[in-house]
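We include the pair:
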Amino acid sequence: MEPKVIATPLPVRTAIFPVAGLGTRFLPATKATPKELLPVLDRPLIQFAIDEARAAGIERMIFVSHPSKGAIEKYVTHDAVLHEQLCAKGKHDVADRLVENALDTDKIDVRFVMQDEPLGLGHAVLCAAEDALPGPVAVVLPDDLILGEIGCLSEMIEAYAQGGAGHMVATMQVDPDAVKSYGILSVTGRDDKVLWADGMVEKPAPADAPSRQAVVGRYVLDGSIFDDLRDQEPGAGGEIQLTDAISRATPRIGLSGYRFSGQRYDCGSKEGMLRAILAYANMTPEFRDVISEHKISLLAAE
């Protein structure tokens, strides 16, 4: 059964980036460098997330960070001193690239708020409540790198604008043995790339999973998510879970999943980061010879 059709929602103008995590799985590399600044070749993870949100027409970007991660704010904003030094040395191409990557605060409102304690993804989103613009909000997890011709967030916002559900989550089909590692959508109907759902089950056993549609790190959420998070009781690990608040609101405002067209890489793990680096290198002409040499070496070693 599909959720009741709601009015066409307001435009999505705000994107929230939860970047307060300490990246313990990448220690010692993340002892001094935030995990969001770890490079996929020469492009930090956070840059992919920023570019995806910028391409989707986001007007305000809110970074929910930690006081120890000031390097993120330094990275995402324009550094006039560094730009001048590079130009003085004749490195105009590099200087121009840095300007292109940095967020132009004349065009996009950039805000930083602090999450001092690791109280869960739901708590991180709630930290952005006072800075979010009216209407629905996007949540982008930089750890989930999604490579594709069209950005996942652009696809989701276009589908969300058609109405039908107050909350939308990005989903992908996973192998049966993998469902225990994800929140799994309880699917009740399909409409092309949109999946109607009546809830989510967090990390079910394969035999108990309602589907194989796993929720990954892109969300477009009705603005009421903040009120629901304020009332949300702590869940697993004593943390405020975003999925709990979404599930609780489903009977009231509806829930849908979106099967994005790109390829997702879990860059919160070393294996996922390595896969992302190899995939991105294969997509970049200047590195294709290196990838070919690597493949030949692997074949010769067998």
In short: DSSP finds ten helices and 13 strands in the chain. The chain has two domains: 14-268, 269-302.
